[in-house]
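Listing 4. Sequential folding, example run.
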Amino acid sequence: MIAIGDKVWRYSGFKLDGGYPKRLTIPSNIHAAFFLKSRRALVFIKGSQYWLWDELGSAKHLQLYPKPLAQLIAGLPPDPDAAFSGTDGHIYVFRGERYWRASPALVVEKGYPRRSRELMHCDD
């Protein structure tokens, strides 16, 4: 997923998914975003709040947002720098030199946060 301005492009592999780009109805200057497979929706994070954007949802659905990020996944940091959904089903959220890994059940796993260098296999 790539978000620029008020539009979002979604890719499967390296191929643009049908019907994209689509117009977003969320605040500009988001901090991070990821695809939440269990809800088939995009999650946008800004500060300590999140928006759930369901491409099939109505405008009324978006009126329920923003919500506190802790209601979605407790233990994530506010103001993340980046996030992504891994092919392993986990959600990875980055802030500074640390990252958090949440399970598909939306729980931050024990032992996190960790240094980002560990995930990227960077040498000291």
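-- end of first protein; second protein begins --
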Amino acid sequence: MYPPTRAAFGFRLSMSRYEGLTFCLSSSRIRVRFLSQSCTIAVIDDDDALRESMKDMLESLGYDAIAFPSASEFLDLYSQCPIHCIISDVKMPGIDGLQLLDILNGKGARTPLIFMTAFRDQRLTTAAKQGGALGVLSKPIDSDQLVAMLESAVGDHSGGKETD
């Protein structure tokens, strides 16, 4: 894999996709991702609208995304399909996000996990980091922060070359 190169452009461009190439301009920089093998991201949130919009956004970025309304539904299918990263709400009915992290750690799972929450505090951030979570994003989600965390989480799994 080659190190990313960067080029700045003086215009803004939205997403476009053409046969394995994804072009994305963020903060006046264009990223080109050559997707020869897609990454699968699991989105877990009990809020239907947020879950589906997050899934749509991830797919527009070139990822495969699977949405789950609860941690228990995710756990039922977790071992049956390859998941490269998990994005989960913290506060959910039943198994919450931190409990999910504990369960995955107990299974020896090494899948990167990114939390999102509307109720962020220092105790949550500390518990998530100590449990091995990649990070905690506050709702509403900052898309640039999410993309940076995803690139950090799945950069080695994307199967492709990315340039800036």
